[in-house]
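Hypothesis: this fold can be encoded by more than one sequence.
Test: take the structure tokens below, design a sequence, compare later.
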């Protein structure tokens, strides 16, 4: 059950996944008042089961896994010890309380804990893509092949709990139920403080694609890039009292040369394609797609800033909006191109993403 051959990440979804996509009948459901065909719950779950298992049984040498495992072992083992343990935590107390409650009431096995976290994360992704994506298989494929799966479910697990919790509330954002969304964000900020960035973003992404708010965000980004030295100083001062203070005091922050330009380009694809397809986006005037387009703008701009500042800190923020890009891309291709051309474009897109997967896995992470 331990993942040793990372090509299996693609082999599963390109074999069993495509088989399920073709053979299993789709279910007719009502989405935002419209009847559309979607994957059934069982087949949608079956597609992602191996990714839950692989994340749960990951080895200690991958990313931050040993840190998370040790924090689980160090967590309180009884309710009487929990208050003192929680009080000893100086940041993201909610995560450590979660560790303790799981250890006390469910299991003292770190593997079981990792499996439970992976199941929660993948359920949020599966549920949202199944409901809102016009191509569930493609959305899951993009999530895996982009290496988001490994980056966050095998590495940045704590932040991804917050990311997935907010992503599961995509319907709240769509319906402008801001109070509910902000309550969820505030609760999840006890797991990872970075999710507070979503409070202004849920307002920025509302409205039509490429609206005034997004243009203001673009202008602010340009100002940040123009005054980069001042922004970096401001960022360092702002982070001194946060969970990233330790990072600032080490050479890791000073030696950080920003996010890879290849990653910036890859994550900007949904925004770039949206520019070319703006006419079709405006014609559809689909609130969900409008939000996804505006999220893609935020994603691209945050990655651009991270390229010139910090891939360690700023480069981790776009994940809060980039997951919607995997809803947007299949929709854009289906609506911009004719049916035959759309099929060819999807194949080309998949091949390019596989190349990025190989680049990231082989050259950046040395895993292939």
């Amino acid at each position: 059950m331990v993942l040793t051959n990372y090509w299996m990440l693609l082999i599963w979804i390109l074999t069993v996944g495509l088989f399920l996509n073709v053979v299993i009948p789709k279910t007719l459901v009502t989405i935002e008042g419209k009847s559309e065909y979607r994957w059934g719950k069982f087949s949608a779950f079956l597609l992602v089961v191996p990714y839950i298992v692989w994340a749960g049984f990951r080895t200690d040498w991958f990313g931050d896994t040993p840190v998370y495992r040790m924090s689980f072992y160090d967590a309180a083992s009884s309710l009487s010890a929990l208050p003192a343990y929680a009080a000893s935590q100086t940041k993201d107390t909610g995560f450590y309380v979660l560790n303790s409650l799981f250890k006390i009431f469910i299991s003292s096995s770190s593997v079981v804990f990792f499996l439970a976290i992976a199941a929660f994360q993948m359920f949020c992704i599966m549920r949202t893509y199944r409901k809102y994506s016009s191509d569930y298989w493609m959305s899951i494929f993009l999530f895996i092949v982009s290496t988001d799966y490994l980056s966050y479910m095998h590495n940045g697990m704590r932040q991804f709990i917050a990311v997935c919790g907010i992503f599961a509330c995509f319907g709240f954002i769509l319906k402008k139920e801001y109070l509910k969304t902000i309550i969820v964000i505030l609760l999840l900020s006890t797991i990872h403080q970075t999710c507070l960035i979503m409070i202004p973003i849920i307002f920025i992404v509302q409205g039509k694609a490429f609206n005034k708010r997004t243009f203001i965000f673009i202008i602010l980004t340009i100002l940040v890039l123009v005054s980069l030295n001042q922004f970096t100083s401001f960022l360092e001062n702002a982070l001194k009292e946060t969970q990233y203070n330790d990072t600032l005091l080490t050479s890791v922050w000073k030696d950080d040369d920003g996010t890879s330009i290849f990653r910036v380009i890859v994550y900007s694809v949904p925004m770039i394609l949206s520019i070319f397809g703006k006419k079709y986006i405006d014609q559809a005037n689909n609130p969900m797609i409008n939000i996804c387009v505006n999220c893609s703008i935020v994603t691209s701009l945050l990655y651009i800033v991270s390229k010139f500042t910090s891939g360690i800190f700023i480069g981790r923020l776009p994940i809060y909006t980039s997951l919607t890009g995997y809803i947007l891309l299949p929709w854009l291709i289906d609506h911009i191109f004719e049916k035959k051309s759309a099929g060819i474009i999807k194949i080309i897109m998949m091949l390019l993403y596989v190349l990025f997967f190989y680049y990231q896995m082989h050259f950046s992470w040395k895993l292939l």
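Residues 205-336 form one domain. The CA atoms of residues 79 and 101 lie 8 Å apart.
Hypothesis status: open.
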